Amino acid sequence: MSSVKEQEAVGKLMVFLQEWDSAHKVARSRILDNFIKSSDGKTEPELELEFSQGASLFLARLTAWLRVTYMYSTCLDKLLKSIGIFLSATSGRRYIIEFLEIGGVLVLLEILGLRHLKEEDKRESVKLLQLIAGAGRKYKELICESYGVRCLAEFLATSNSAEAREDVQVLLDSLGRGNPKYQNQVYKGLVAVLPCASPHAQQLALRALGGMQGAVGEAPSPGLVEPVLGVLCSVHLEVQQEATQLLRALAAREARPALLKGLVALLTPPGEKALAASGHTTEGKRAGQLPVLAKESAEVAEELMQLKVVQGLMVAVGNLDHAASQRHASISLEYFVHKFPCVEECVKKALGHTLFQHFMESPETWYTKMDPVKAEELASNIADSPRDMARTPS
């Protein structure tokens, strides 16, 4: 027979639950405030003690109200924080299971796609998904099976909150580790973020891709090269740095031939006057990555030579419309001149003795002394390009 004390505790719980059931929005908001203030950080045993072994009854009411009201933002932030107290409770795995049984993951993902909801509410939703993913592999799989990767990638690309974007990146990084069944799906989802308009989202996606690369091995996305090359032209240094790190990792994989070919192809405009008309300077920025990759191995340097990288660099150097591109290309050209004797001969022949001396003395500024006629020669691909002589580096 239950003791009098236990009966009193149960009676108190029933009164509390009846108060919740009969309360309207304002009263429920006050109840949530009190719960968050008094219960944040409590363990599962502590929550059960607080609710006389009936904490799940209150959690069920919270999740039921969430399902009914999440589209209308009714106390949504407080509601999600209250549910988070249960999901984050030490030894509270059963609370996560109970939340999932009512379709909690789908509700949280739908919240991310509702444009009228606040970014703060969406961030709370992401935090709950982090807690669920942190519970183990089967929970990560459940999120992915619910089209979570696509939903999270879209939110990462479109969110206006830097904090929310960082939380999503952490979640995607978690879903990409210890989750072999959906690892490639996460990788492809991150690649899909790269063309977005947010530099911060690009940076975070690149960072996550770099972190996954070792575990993934060969890149699972056949369309990887183009978006990676695309972010190299970013004016944001942090994006360029993350892209460079990923490029270095990919240069050791099967994607290397397509990657190097794409880099070299971008040095040469698609047609005469095309670059000047478009106003792009991307070829110079990408040229700056060539020495980085070439220094990784002699094999990479030789592959670049076979792809006529020297010819492309001289085209970029001859582009008088964009001094920044000339500078990047010239610095890259200097590396190949020092690396391969055949390149030195080719460049000396193309520039002439005096201009070549200026180039060797000051590769960062020599092009300012170049006259339009010589620039036109370089930009028109007149110079011979060494290709098959790349086997004997100096």
TrEMBL record:
Pfam families: DUF5578 (PF17741). This is ARMD1 protein.
